[in-house]
């Protein structure tokens, strides 16, 4: 083997060792690189006996480098191969499939289009979670467009506009733009006029029942062949508010014999007598239907991809007629199934939740029993945990189930290491203490972080235990952070046994609270309020701090209520 060949082998061995090490984030191995090395360099094969010795020295040098040093060296030697590895890694990290035909667009542009009839329930989080994730992946753009063009049956709630934007912020996303459809009526009117001039729409004064009979039998409405001038004149009268609700509509001319009756000459505008709650829109009486309004907006906002429920497939088909008249290209569409969420007795419905709040059965949108994002936020669950769970559902056309336990698991991963531990005894039994125990218990603030120190829990003449933790007569228990006690004659007698009795499985460890120095706590949970007592340090915690009540679960400190002489906390999850 001459020096030139040896240098080539060393260069190629270094490249393949780096590829192997960076791809698997571990040390390179001679056996793992020999196949690719020889495959890329068939002229090396006649020196096969010598190559492992040459490569071994190079691999040793590569393995002495840090991961970042390996990556930097590989970027110098083989930037294209490094890019392929990173692309594969990125693809593996995604729960969501690639957007269809994404590479055909200069920019991925998407929209979240809520109906502002109330704050978001948990199911609503799926759309922004997925769209926000796609924006980050493709360095794209997304807007919030409030589809608020139905001031009667889906009447907007004036507080919902800001509430929804707050929910979006909680999930960790900031829209690139925000629009209200009720601000854009003149834009929709202009497009309706153009559609009329193109022969694509006509005014119709048939009753709903009359048109339904004609539509279902595939017969044309008698108003279908009006001349454009008459249609334009009657549409202007609609815009001027000269008709009452139900008197006149503007229909998109489609195919009256279409195999799907739902697509036959559908309504684009109708009259609504009820004023819009927004002052800026309160004078309008001629309102677009969602399929017309949304279709026009998606084009004008240059939306590249739409995500919508599979039950809305007809919307794309209706809008396609309008797009064909105008010569527009329809966006890519991803349809998905519904998401079902467990753990709540309250129906996942904005109107139902609003009704329960009005009736006083729920305290508000952030009641822990309400399946809303505001409730999860008040309970101390981070938006990131929700986004991860929702994105993990993917975009299947089948209905999917989301267990709240998956959100809880994500949140636990986010907060466990930073959350200190405390004792909280639910509905406790007070038991006298005897036998000269230590005057103070000092369990750690966090079992994995000794540097944070310990808690200082005073021990007086009695403690509180949860009812199921009270031992049988003459049995021993270990009060965590304090020591071993025997239950005899209605009292806990300190025994001074060492921790070996716990390690050997003879004694159960239980949490507790001092009877006199404890803090009264009301813990609000999805199943109702739970009252009890916590160690005194809980009274010094500030609002929004998270705590893990040992053997109970995580909770968020909400407030210290001086009037009720209690600390109110919101239960997050186990």
Q: What does this entry show, briefly?
A:
Residues 509-558 form the tRNA synthetases class I (E and Q) anti-codon binding domain. Helices cover 34% and strands 21% of the residues. It has 574 residues and is α/β, with parallel strands linked by helices.
Describe this structure in words.
- Residues 107-415 form the Glutamyl/glutaminyl-tRNA synthetase class Ib catalytic domain.
- GO terms for molecular function: ATP binding; glutamate-tRNA ligase activity.
- This protein is an alpha/beta fold.
- It is built from 17 helices and 27 strands.
- It has a seven-stranded mixed β-sheet with strand order 12-25-26-27-23-24-13.
Entry keywords:
34% helix, alpha/beta, 7-stranded mixed beta sheet
Sequence-ordered SSE layout with sheet pairings:
Elements: H1 3-24, H2 30-40, H3 51-63, H4 67-77, H5 79-93, E1 109-112, H6 126-138, E2 141-146, H7 160-171, E3 177-180, H8 185-197, E4 201-204, H9 208-216, H10 228-239, E5 249-252, E6 267-271, E7 286-288, H11 290-300, E8 305-309, H12 313-326, E9 332-336, E10 339-341, H13 350-358, H14 373-378, H15 383-391, E11 400-402, H16 404-415, E12 420-422, E13 424-426, E14 429-434, E15 440-441, E16 457-458, E17 462-465, E18 476-479, E19 483-488, E20 491-494, H17 500-503, E21 508-510, E22 513-514, E23 519-525, E24 528-534, E25 546-549, E26 553-561, E27 566-573
Parallel strand pairs: 1-2, 2-3, 8-9, 10-11, 12-25, 14-20, 18-21, 23-27
Antiparallel strand pairs: 4-5, 5-6, 6-7, 13-24, 14-17, 15-16, 17-22, 18-19, 19-20, 23-24, 25-26, 26-27
């Amino acid at each position: 083997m001459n020096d030139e060949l040896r240098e080539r082998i060393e260069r190629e061995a270094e490249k393949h060792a780096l590829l192997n090490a960076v791809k698997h984030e571990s040390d390179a191995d001679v056996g793992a690189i020999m196949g690719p090395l020889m495959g890329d360099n068939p002229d090396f094969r006649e020196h096969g006996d010598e190559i492992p010795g040459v490569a071994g020295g190079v691999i040793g040098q590569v393995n002495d480098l840090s991961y970042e040093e390996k990556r930097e060296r590989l970027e110098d030697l083989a930037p294209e191969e490094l890019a392929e590895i990173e692309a594969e890694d990125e693809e593996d990290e995604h729960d969501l499939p690639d957007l269809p035909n994404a590479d055909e667009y200069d920019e991925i542009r998407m929209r979240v289009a809520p109906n502002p009839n109330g704050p978001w329930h948990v199911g609503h989080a799926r759309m922004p979670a997925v769209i926000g994730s796609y924006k980050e992946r493709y360095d794209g753009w997304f807007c919030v467009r409030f589809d608020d063009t139905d001031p009667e049956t889906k009447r907007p709630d004036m507080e919902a506009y800001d509430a929804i934007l707050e929910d979006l912020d909680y999930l960790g996303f900031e829209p690139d733009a925000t629009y209200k459809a009720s601000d854009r009526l003149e834009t929709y009117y202009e497009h309706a006029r153009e559609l009329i001039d193109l022969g694509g729409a006509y005014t119709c004064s048939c009753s709903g029942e009359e048109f339904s009979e004609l539509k279902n039998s595939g017969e044309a409405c008698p108003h279908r062949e009006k001349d454009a001038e008459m249609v334009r004149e009657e549409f202007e009268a609609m815009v001027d508010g000269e008709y009452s609700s139900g008197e006149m509509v503007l229909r998109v001319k489609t195919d009256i014999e279409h195999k799907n009756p739902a697509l036959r000459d559908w309504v684009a505008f109708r009259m609504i007598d009820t004023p819009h709650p927004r002052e800026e829109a309160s004078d309008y009486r001629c309102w677009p239907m969602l399929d017309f309004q949304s279709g026009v907006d998606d084009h004008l906002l240059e939306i590249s991809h739409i995500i919508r429920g599979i039950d809305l497939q007809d919307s794309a088909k209706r809008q396609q007629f309008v797009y064909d008249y105008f010569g527009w290209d329809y966006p890519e569409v991803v349809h998905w199934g519904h998401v079902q969420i467990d753990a709540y007795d309250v129906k996942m419905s904005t109107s139902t939740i609003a009704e329960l709040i009005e009736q006083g059965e729920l305290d508000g949108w952030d009641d822990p029993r309400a399946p809303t994002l505001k409730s999860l936020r008040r309970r101390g669950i981070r938006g990131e945990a929700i986004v991860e769970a929702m994105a993990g559902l993917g975009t299947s056309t089948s209905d999917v189930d989301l267990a709240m336990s998956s959100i809880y698991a994500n949140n636990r991963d986010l907060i466990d290491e930073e959350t200190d531990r405390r004792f909280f005894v639910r509905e406790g039994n007070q038991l006298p203490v005897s036998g000269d125990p230590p005057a103070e218990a000092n369990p750690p603030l966090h079992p994995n972080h000794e540097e944070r120190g310990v808690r200082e829990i005073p021990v007086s003449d009695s403690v509180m235990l949860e009812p199921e933790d009270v031992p049988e007569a003459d049995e021993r228990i270990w009060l965590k952070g304090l020591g071993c006690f025997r239950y005899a004659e209605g009292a806990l007698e300190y025994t001074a046994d060492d921790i070996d009795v716990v390690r050997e499985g003879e004694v159960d460890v239980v949490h507790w609270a001092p009877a006199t120095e404890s803090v009264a706590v009301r813990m609000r949970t999805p199943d109702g309020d739970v009252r009890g007592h916590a160690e005194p340090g809980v009274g010094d915690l500030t609002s929004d701090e998270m705590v893990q009540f040992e053997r109970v679960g995580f909770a968020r400190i909400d407030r210290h209520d001086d009037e009720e002489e209690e600390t109110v906390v919101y239960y997050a999850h186990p």
